[in-house]
Amino acid sequence: MRIEAFDFDLPAESIALHPSQPRDAARLLVVEPREHAPSFDDRRVFDLPDLLRAGDVLVVNDTKVIPARLSGQRRRGDAVAHIDATLHKREGLDLWRAFVRPAKKLAIGEQVTFMADGGQGEALVADVIDKQEGGEVLLRFAVSGAALDAAIEAVGSMPLPPYIAAKRPQDATDRDSYQTMFASDPGAVAAPTAGLHFTPNLIAALMARDIAVHRVTLHVGAGTFLPVKVDDTLDHHMHAEWGEIDVETAKALNAAHAEGRRIVSVGTTSLRILETATDEAGTIQPFSGDTSIFITPGYRFRAVDVLMTNFHLPRSTLFMLVAAFSGLSTMHDAYRHAIEAGYRFYSYGDASLLFRADASLDEGTA
Hints:
21% of the residues lie in helices and 28% in strands. It starts with 26 loop residues before the first strand and ends in an 11-residue tail after the last strand. The longest helix is centred in the C-terminal third of the chain and has 13 residues, at 328-340. It has helices at residues 48-51, 145-155, 162-165, 174-177, 200-208, 247-258, 268-277, 317-326, 328-340, and strands at 27-32, 39-44, 57-61, 63-65, 69-76, 79-92, 95-101, 111-115, 124-131, 136-141, 185-188, 212-218, 241-245, 263-266, 287-291, 306-310, 351-355. The protein is of the alpha/beta class. The strands form three sheets. A nine-stranded mixed sheet has the order 2-1-17-16-14-3-12-13-15. It has a six-stranded antiparallel barrel with strand order 5-6-7-10-9-8.
C-alpha cells in the first residue's frame, strides 16, 4: 500500500508531554468497526473492567526500559566530537547496536567515551566495530554482562521519544513515568506505552471481574520511532526486536481461545509477539528469539481479539498495524474523532480500545 494512505493531520497541541495522573484516569476511546459506520465511545481507562467480559485474558508486556540514551565524545588527535547514542538491541554480553548522531563523525575502529550528564562520575568506553546505513553502529563496550548493565544505568538517561525530548528537558519523574507497573525484564529502549495506564487498583478490579492477566516479553527497540521513508509498505524494513512467550503462558492462552474466551492485547508490542508465535492453525507456540513482523492491512490476525493501544504517529508502522486490526477507514474516523474531542496523543497520551474488524469490513486491503 502507498504510505500516504496512512497520513493524517495532527495539531502539535495534541501531543502529550506528561502522563495522566493517576495513570488510569487517562481517556479511553472505544472503537467498534461496523458495516455502515464505526461506533465510538468516550470512556476512561478505569472503565476497562466494565468494557471487557468475564473470562477475557489480558496480555501485558513485562519488558523494562533501560536508560539507553548515552552522551559522549570521540577524540581524533586534538579534535573532539560530541556523540549521542541510543542503544536499541543487545547483541552480546558486551555488544549493543545503537543509533548515533552525528554518524559521519564516527568510523569503524574509533572509540567513544560516554559519561553522565555534566561529565561527572565514571566513564563508559566503547569501540565502534561495525557501521550501517541510517546512523546505526555496533558498539563493543569495555565491560560486559551485569557490569555493563550497571554502567548503563549510571551513565545513561531515559530514552524519551523524540517528539517529547524535543519539547522539554527530561526530569526526575521520567524514570518512573516511562516505566509500566509490569516492568521486570530489562532490555527495552522504548516503553510499551499502553501498559503505562495500569495501576494496582485497576488490575485488582479486572481480576475481580474474572479477567486474568498474563505476561509476555518484547524488548521494544528504538526502531519503533524511525520514520517510514519509502513510498510503499512493501519496501519498508522493520528492525528486529527480541521477544519471549513461555510454555505456561502459551498453554493458558490456547486454553482461553479453545473455551471461546477473548485475548486482549495491551499494546502493539504484546500483539506483535503473540502474532509472531501463532501458527497458521491459530495455536500460540512457546517462543524465544527475534521478530521483525510488519503488520499492514490485509494481515490475518490469528491470536488477538481486542487491542488496547495509544494513539500513534501519522505514516507510522503502528498506525498501519491498527488500520490492519480495525480497518483503515475506521481508524481514520477514530483519529479524527480523537483529535476533535481533545484526546492526548503518543507515548504519554490517552488510549484506545480497538475491536477487530471482520475481514469483510476491512476495506483497507487494496
